[in-house]
Amino acid sequence: MSPLPTLDRDEIQRYSRHLVLPEVGMAGQRRIKGARILLVGAGGLGSPAALYLAAAGVGHLSIVDFDLVDVTNLQRQVLHGTRDVGRPKTESARDRLLDLNPHLSVSLHRTRLDAGNALDLVRDHDLVVDGTDNFATRYLVNDACVLLGKPDVYGSIFRFEGQASVFATPGGPCYRCLYPEPPPPGLVPSCADGGVLGVLPGLIGVIQATEAIKLVLGKGEPLVGRLLVVDALSMRFRELKLQRNPECPACGERRTITRLVDYEAFCGVRGAEAAGPDVPEISVEELKRRREAGEDLVLVDVREPHEVQICSLGGRLIPLGDLPRRVHELDASRDIVVHCRSGPRSARAVAFLRQAGFRKVRNLAGGIVAWAQRIDPRMPRY
């Protein structure tokens, strides 16, 4: 960030509340303007982080996201509005951020961050704000930051709990020091399946933006070696001490990670996909045809009771967690179709039932979401 850019008259007025802070002042604001920050994800975490980084006067923000705005995003992804539904999130984000601060320079990368492009994207920035929602990309961001010596401002959310920390700084721990191995595929539900309180990513994303600005300024105590855990239901903040693991393969004394790898394979995503053919499926169109024909089908819903209140296809409700103790309620001689919201939970249920000896059981591909999209558009989607 040298030489530092100057501030024009309009910027001095815009950032006046920063300039009167001794910890920021003119020199600090020029550092903020000179900063180049990579934001991975323009969703729940990326939205508040991007808004406050732009408002603070960060000179350049690069946004990596491949997704389109969906109406279900709007409960928490405040970068986007109703009129943006169907647009690329990168474009919606750019328009909102430039409206907030026209002095901002924005680069858009409508792509998935992967092992082939991560180093090139991270290299040109001072730090990374990780707003991702999956383990594969979190490990990828971490390893790229460690390899290039760039701070990784981490955040994650689930239901009512969030976490934040700063990884990959000199002498500090990295994400692999906290989580050496990813959990088995499917063990941790996505926000789509598990839900998330809409304001929670606002809390965590603002903390990430705060940490990023502190790192740029070189002021305060960043969350290095500390994991901040937020429970929004009780509104309690806990802090856990983290230490760099000397045996860590990424940042330890005998590092074994010297290049980026296939992170989907590392997190078991490809293995889970490869197991797909072992889980027989039925399409929503075929299910509709067979039900209308009056065929003898048992429909099993493995969602939670509160989800059934949103929409339902009927049938027997056996939440996935209850299935092992309630499997005796099902007749293995009958044709069984299992469904959930979008397919992953019911696929695990089908795999379990097949291991228990059920052979006439199939997973409803795409779940109730596919039914609402292709069979009954009047059905609520969530």
Largest β-sheet summary: 8 strands, mixed
Average pLDDT, to the nearest integer?
Answer: 94
When the domains are counted, the total is: 2
* Beta-strand content bin: 15-25%
Helix coverage percent of residues? 25-40%
CATH-level-2 architecture of the largest domain: 3-Layer(aba) Sandwich
CATH topology-level fold name of the largest domain: Rossmann fold
* CATH C-level name of the largest domain: Alpha Beta
- Which strands sit side by side, in order, in the main sheet? 3-2-1-4-5-6-7-8
Shape: elongated
SSE string, helices as H and strands as E: HHHEHEHEHEHEEHHHEEHHEHEHEHEHEH
State the total count of DSSP E strands: 13
Secondary structural class? alpha/beta
The CATH superfamily title of the largest domain? NAD(P)-binding Rossmann-like Domain
Taking all Cα atoms into account, the compactness measure Rg is 24 Å
Distance between the termini: 44 Å
- How many helices? 17
Unreliable sequence segments? 271-276
Give the topology.
Elements (H helix, E strand, L loop, with lengths): L8 H6 L1 H4 L5 H10 L1 E5 L5 H11 L3 E5 L24 H12 L4 E5 L8 H6 L3 E4 L4 H14 L3 E7 L2 E7 L7 H4 L12 H4 L5 H18 L8 E6 L4 E6 L21 H4 L2 H6 L6 E2 L1 H9 L4 E5 L3 H4 L7 E2 L5 H4 L8 E5 L4 H12 L5 E4 L2 H8 L8
Please, could you describe this protein's structure?
This protein has 382 residues and is α/β, with parallel strands linked by helices. It has two domains: 238 residues, Rossmann fold (3-Layer(aba) Sandwich); 100 residues, Rhodanese-like domain (Oxidized Rhodanese, domain 1, 3-Layer(aba) Sandwich), CATH 3.40.250.10. The chain contains 17 helices and 13 strands. The strands form two sheets. It has an eight-stranded mixed sheet with strand order 3-2-1-4-5-6-7-8, with helices on both faces. A hairpin with a 2-residue loop joins strand 5 and strand 6. It is elongated and about 75 Å long.
